[in-house]
Structures are given as C-alpha cells and as structure tokens.
Design brief:
single chain; alpha+beta; 5-stranded antiparallel β-sheet; two-stranded antiparallel sheet; 12 helices; 9 strands
Length: 312
C-alpha cells in the first residue's frame, strides 16, 4: 500500500513572524492559543489547525512568498474561493500576505482520509466523484487551462528514457517494452478534451471523510479543464495500492464505463513513467520520503498497467 503520511518537513506556526501571526489572529477575531501542525502530504509549507481562545478552529496554510510553492498556494486559495459554494471543499475565510509570507485560512473540517480498502468509504469517494463530474460541468472556473496543455508536456518520461537511454535499474518488463510505453504514453490527450473542472491531484490525503460519511475534497492547487474520466483514472492507482482491483470499478462508473480502454492505458502509462522518472531525481531536502513514495507509486502503476495490457 502507498503510504502518504510523514513525507514533508513542514514549516510550523511558530516559524511565522509575529506580525503575520497577529494578522491571522485579527482575521479570525481572536487569539490563537494553540496550533496543531499537520505532518502529512508533500509540501514543506505550514499546515496547521489553529485553535482560538473560545475553542473555535480554523485551518491555516502558509508559505514564504519567494518559495517555489507560493503560486500553488495562491492557486489553491483562488480555486477554493470559487468552489466552496459549489462542491464540498472548505471555504476560504481570508488570506494574508505580509513580511514575506502568504497565508490562506480555511474553515476547519474534521475527518479522516478515506481507507480505500473499505467498501463503504470507497463507495463514498466514487459517489462524490460522480457528483462532482455533474456539478463541475461546465467548469465554474472559466480561466483554468486544459489538462492536456498542463500535463501533456510533463507526462512524456518514457520517451525521455527511450531517447536518452533507460536507467540501469529500470524494471525488466518496462525495459523490454520501453518503445511501446513511449508510443502509448502521449495518446491520452486524444480522449481528455472536455469542459469539466478537474482536481488532477486526487489521492487519499486530499480527501476527508467526515462523521456523517460525506467526502470533502481539499487542496485544489492544480485545477484544470477536461473530460471527467481523467480524475477517476488519476485516483485509480491509489485504489490499486489499497489492494482493490480498479478495473471492475472503471467498468461501472459513468465517467469510464464507455471509454476506450486505451485512454486509461495511456494515462496510466504516462503516470507510471512520470513517477519512474521523478523517483530517480535527487530528493528535496525537506521532503526526505518523497522519492521513496514516488518509487512505490511507479511500481503500483506499472503492475496495474501490466495486468491490463497483456504485454510479455
């Protein structure tokens, strides 16, 4: 199973300059008496549940404005501001930008990440994706780019391996079929055009199951416009990692049941190539577990692709 927790070494609430923390407290209308710093995910920016003196809670995320992640944090804030009344995602209460920091404060949502090996929680996640496909078509965020424009150039890593020479430790099956993988990976955009707003980063740690069993979707940092099947296909490797065969699910879900299987094969191929390439890069110093996670994700995606595609 792919493990999502404890990947990043995050900034903490106490790392923010005093004027920034005071500005956040002013926005919340009360003194922050404690901050429960969150350890999961891949970002090194601050993520903390902020507790006020009167017991009220909010969720804050912060990053230095000169950090490479700052634009993603701003994009997440902008998307959530436009979506919180449309889909179940935490509302943005306010943002703060001062003294070299950008902070976005959300309403707090209590829940746990879905356990995709539990049929009830998996069903809730799939039902939420189906609802989102309806609600978010056409996209309520008119200016987001197409998924093919954003991800098409990034998901060409098998081609890079074929052109530059594959890594010596590449899995034998991938090595034997490298030319086929390089030919398959760029085909998914043929089916990806559409007007649905896509999350494009769905995985268990970006989903919360609340006490009533509802599913909340968080971290809209990479919204794109495209066909609804893309989000389900991008989540499917996490379903496979939980020990559940995604193929019967894809055969039943409205977004994928009539889709050409080559569409799923090609995006799965492209994702596996991306993880395979990323896992071999030097690890970011503040995300020491990231490359190991990516290696596991590559292995899971390749295993599922191998079972689907039938190449020897």
């Amino acid at each position: 199973m792919i493990v999502f927790e404890g990947v990043a070494q995050r900034d903490e609430w106490r790392d923010l300059p005093v004027p920034v923390r005071e500005a956040v407290a002013d926005g919340l209308g009360g003194r922050v008496v404690s901050a429960v710093n969150q350890r999961g995910g891949f970002s090194h920016g601050m993520a903390a549940v902020l507790v006020l003196a009167d017991g009220q809670r909010a969720f804050g995320k912060a990053v230095r404005t000169g950090d490479g992640l700052a634009e993603a944090y701003r994009a997440e804030a902008a998307a959530a501001q436009g979506l919180s009344k449309v889909v179940p995602t935490p509302a943005v209460l306010f943002t703060v930008e001062r003294d070299g920091w950008f902070v976005v404060v959300f309403e707090a949502v209590t829940g746990h990440h879905p356990r995709l090996d539990r049929p009830d929680e998996l069903h809730s996640v799939l039902a939420q994706l189906e609802r989102m496909a309806e609600i978010l078509t056409p996209s309520p965020l008119p200016d987001v780019p197409s998924v093919s424009l954003v991800y098409g150039p990034k998901l060409r890593c098998w081609s890079g391996f074929a052109e530059q020479g594959p890594p010596q430790d590449l899995a034998p099956w991938a090595f034997r079929n490298l030319d086929r993988l390089a030919e398959l990976e760029p085909r998914w955009p043929d089916w990806a055009a559409g007007e649905t707003l896509l999350h494009t980063d769905l995985r268990p740690d970006n989903l919360l199951v609340t006490a009533d069993g509802a599913v909340t979707v968080v971290d809209w940092a990479w919204p794109c416009r495209g066909a609804a099947w893309v989000d389900l296909a991008l989540l499917a490797p996490a379903i496979s990692a939980a020990g559940v065969d995604p193929d019967p699910i894809l055969a039943q879900q409205p977004a994928t049941r009539d889709l050409d299987p080559v569409a799923v094969d090609s995006i799965l191929c492209a994702i596996a190539g991306y993880w395979s390439a990323q896992s071999r890069l030097t690890g970011p110093p503040r995300s020491p577990g990231l490359r190991a996670y990516q290696a596991r994700a590559a292995q899971t995606s390749l295993s599922w692709l191998k079972s689907r595609i039938g190449w020897s």
